[in-house]
Amino acid sequence: MDFIETETEKAYRLIAPRPTIIITTQYKGRINAAPFSFTMPVSVEPPLVAFASAPTHHTFKNIEKTGEFVINIPNEDILKELWITGEKLPEEVNELEKANLTGISSSIVSPPKIGECIAHMECKVHSITDVGDHKLVIGRVVKADVDKTALKDGLLDVENVKPVLHLGGVNFVVGDHLRQV
């Protein structure tokens, strides 16, 4: 191998492709949806998941005020819609409506789930930590559901559902194909 040095500020790009989720929040009746790829599970018992957000992001501000959110797992069928939810829009704009996605009622938390997503995790904030220029939000999963056709032997059937993985910028990996939005 022949190694080259890369900028440390861009080293996170080497941890790619990364699973991409859409987080929904709700504050004072306003629904917000935004994609995130700085995500990971952090504990099995209790069930904890985490994502990093810029503190200025509407999603983070809503979570800070309400203490709850939904992680929605998209697949390739809604890649363009996912990208629309990431647009910089005024906080009063409902990104689900803008992206023509369907909000469905959650069982335990207030923010809606996205009907077109293959799985959902309703979460309550466990903790929020400053991490550099981002906030690390750790949520406790209080309810989870998945489309029964998305599982095979208890695992996500990636060949069937084709989850969205973020490579960087407008570049995504779906299955074994590079896709651009």
User: Going across the major beta sheet, what is the strand order?
Assistant: 3-2-6-9-10-5-4
In total, the number of strands is: 15
Q: Estimate percent helicity.
A: 10-25%
> What CATH first level would be assigned?
Mainly Beta
Task: Report strand %.
Answer: 35-45%
CATH homologous superfamily, by name?
Electron Transport, Fmn-binding Protein, Chain A
CATH architecture assignment: Roll
Largest sheet: 7 strands, antiparallel
Low-confidence stretches: none
Q: Could you say which structural class the secondary elements and strand pairing correspond to?
A: mainly beta
What is the end-to-end distance? 32 Å
Overall pLDDT metric: 95
Shape: globular
How many helices? 4
H-E order: EEEEEHEHHEEEEEEHEEE
CATH fold node name = Pnp Oxidase, Chain A
Radius of gyration: 16 Å
Fold and architecture overview:
It is a single chain. The chain has 181 residues and is mainly beta. The protein has one domain: Pnp Oxidase, Chain A (Roll), CATH 2.30.110.
Tag the structure with descriptive keywords:
181 residues, Pnp Oxidase, Chain A, 7-stranded antiparallel β-sheet, 4-stranded antiparallel β-sheet
